């Protein structure tokens, strides 16, 4: 593709050199450069790509997009100065891959909790209706049933456009994707035309990156500010920030709620370990999900499907047959009647939601034993809050490691212990080894008791000092229960 074509609709500060050049590929990683590539120099969080412009040229780059022009330029190379390389990468990648988001309906899901469940369930629902569908989620990237393990909640903009082009080639009519606050802030969704956006909630998370709660909200809101008048903006009215998301959007404004007046409403009639009876949009359906947070997620799925012109009754029928997403309130029962619930809850609010869901179905004749940790190299301020939420709704709590990454797991646990109030000290124990923590919880449990293992959910690894070691909470529980994996 000609460089001039890629540059047609981007804001250029200055251009040095010919724009009639052929571009064989686009890269932002200089190590991947080959002949006739365009290299986009980004100012990353930890590394400035401008340092690698010369390396990229040596490896065959003939065009450079950058925010700061180098002092010396080469006549055989075209230099394009822009204000925001991150944004431009997405825009030119979209053109290079044929603007795939214009050829299918793309719906983005953002918020602290519920993104994976909603996006994944929408993918399942539309597949069950016979559509070709794409998915970009924390767990995996899917084109129909073809699956690739995800590296990020929202991949880089080059990868997004490449995957979306593959989706279009496979005949996909819809793509459902998680949109993280990091991705919004870093312009990874630039170049995508969204047919709709969904807001779940905002709670305490990612303050290691955004620094303040106001900046975190601002990042989420920017997604809705960017929606067009042809799109829909569907927000959770049970979160006070839902209305904030709608303030400046041009999109059609819609709300959903379990508790208040909204365009789409849902009420839980009964809750059991094997599911809930819901009144959704005036009709009663039985679902295989547990907890009000899941009722909210299912309502968002239903509302989105209806807004995408699907038949209401058919959607409700399929929702009643859907099963929970991997590692989200995943229940395992031992032969002697102990229950273990494995859940991805890794924020204070998510942990509170899962424990509330357990509270809705327990008889009060059993113990709730919670195993919980906190990730290393992430927001430290939520660590004591995680311990507080666990202790407030559990009979026993075991504080343990999650993904310590480069941090000392004992230090992370100390941060969590800071949230333990004096009256709760007799029901908490700290065990650094996650495997031993799970074994201890199972040993303490009696038939009928409920063990919550929170924080990792679908993950099948533990990251320690930059190395990922195989570790799966579900495997550990099954081993302790004497069940086959």
Question: Would you write up a description of this structure?
Answer:
This protein is of the alpha/beta class. Helices cover 32% and strands 23% of the residues. The chain is built from 16 helices and 24 strands. It has helices spanning 3-6, 53-58, 85-96, 115-128, 157-169, 181-185, 207-210, 213-225, 242-246, 292-307, 312-319, 348-361, 383-392, 409-417, 434-444, 473-481; strands spanning 14-16, 25-27, 37-40, 61-66, 78-81, 105-110, 133-136, 140-143, 146-149, 174-178, 196-199, 232-236, 252-257, 264-272, 275-280, 283-287, 330-333, 339-343, 368-372, 396-399, 428-430, 450-454, 461-464, 467-470. A hairpin with a 2-residue loop joins β14 and β15 (275-280). α3 (85-96) runs parallel beside α5 (157-169). It starts with a helix and ends with a helix.
Task: Give the arrangement of secondary structure elements.
Layout: H1 3-6, E1 14-16, E2 25-27, E3 37-40, H2 53-58, E4 61-66, E5 78-81, H3 85-96, E6 105-110, H4 115-128, E7 133-136, E8 140-143, E9 146-149, H5 157-169, E10 174-178, H6 181-185, E11 196-199, H7 207-210, H8 213-225, E12 232-236, H9 242-246, E13 252-257, E14 264-272, E15 275-280, E16 283-287, H10 292-307, H11 312-319, E17 330-333, E18 339-343, H12 348-361, E19 368-372, H13 383-392, E20 396-399, H14 409-417, E21 428-430, H15 434-444, E22 450-454, E23 461-464, E24 467-470, H16 473-481
Parallel strand pairs: 2-3, 3-4, 4-5, 6-10, 6-11, 7-10, 11-12, 12-13, 13-14, 18-22, 19-20, 19-22, 20-21
Antiparallel strand pairs: 1-5, 7-8, 8-9, 14-15, 15-16, 17-18, 23-24
Helix pairs in contact: 3-5, 4-10, 10-11, 12-13, 13-14, 15-16
């Amino acid at each position: 593709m000609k460089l001039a074509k890629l540059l047609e609709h981007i804001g250029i500060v200055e251009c040095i050199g010919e724009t009639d050049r052929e571009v064989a590929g686009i890269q932002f990683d200089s190590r991947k450069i080959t002949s006739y590539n365009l290299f986009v120099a980004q100012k990353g969080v930890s590394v400035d790509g401008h340092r690698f412009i010369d390396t990229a040229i040596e490896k065959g780059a003939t065009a450079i997009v950058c925010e700061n022009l180098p002092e010396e330029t080469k006549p055989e190379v075209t230099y394009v100065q822009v204000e925001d390389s991150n944004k431009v990468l997405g825009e030119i990648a979209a053109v290079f891959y044929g603007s795939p988001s214009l050829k299918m309906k793309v719906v983005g899901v953002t918020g602290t909790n519920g993104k994976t469940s909603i996006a994944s369930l929408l993918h399942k629902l539309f597949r069950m209706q016979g559509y070709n569908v794409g998915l970009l989620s924390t767990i995996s990237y899917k084109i129909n049933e073809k699956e690739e393990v995800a590296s990020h909640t929202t991949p880089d903009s080059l990868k997004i456009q490449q995957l979306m082009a593959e989706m279009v080639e496979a005949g996909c009519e819809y793509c459902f994707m998680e949109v993280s606050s990091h991705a919004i802030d870093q312009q990874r969704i630039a170049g995508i035309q969204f047919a709709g956006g969904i807001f779940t909630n905002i709670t305490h998370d990612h303050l290691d990156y955004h620094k303040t709660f106001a900046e975190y909200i601002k990042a989420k809101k920017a997604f809705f500010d960017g929606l067009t008048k042809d799109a829909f903006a569907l927000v959770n009215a049970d979160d006070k920030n839902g209305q904030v998301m709608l303030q400046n959007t041009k999109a059609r404004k819609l709300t959903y709620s379990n508790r208040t007046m909204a365009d789409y409403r849902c009420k839980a009639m009964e809750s059991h370990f094997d599911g809930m009876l819901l009144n959704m949009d005036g009709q009663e359906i039985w679902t295989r999900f547990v907890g009000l947070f899941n009722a909210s997620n299912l309502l968002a799925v239903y509302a989105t499907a209806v807004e995408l012109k699907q038949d209401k009754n058919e959607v409700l029928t399929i929702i009643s047959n859907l099963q929970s997403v991997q590692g989200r309130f995943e229940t395992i029962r031992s032969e002697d009647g102990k229950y273990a619930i494995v859940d991805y809850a890794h924020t204070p609010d998510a942990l509170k939601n899962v424990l509330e869901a357990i509270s809705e179905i327990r008889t009060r004749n059993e113990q709730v034993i919670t195993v919980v940790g906190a990730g290393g190299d992430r927001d430290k301020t939520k660590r004591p809050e995680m311990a507080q939420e666990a202790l407030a709704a559990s009979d026993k709590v075991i504080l343990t490691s999650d993904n310590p990454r480069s941090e000392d797991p004992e230090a992370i646990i100390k941060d969590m212990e800071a949230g333990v109030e004096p009256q709760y000290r007799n029901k908490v124990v700290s065990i650094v080894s996650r495997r031993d923590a799970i074994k201890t919880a199972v040993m303490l449990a009696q038939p009928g008791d409920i063990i919550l293992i929170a924080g990792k959910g679908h993950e099948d690894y533990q990251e320690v000092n930059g190395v990922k070691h195989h570790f799966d909470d579900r495997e550990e529980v099954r081993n302790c229960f004497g069940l086959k994996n």
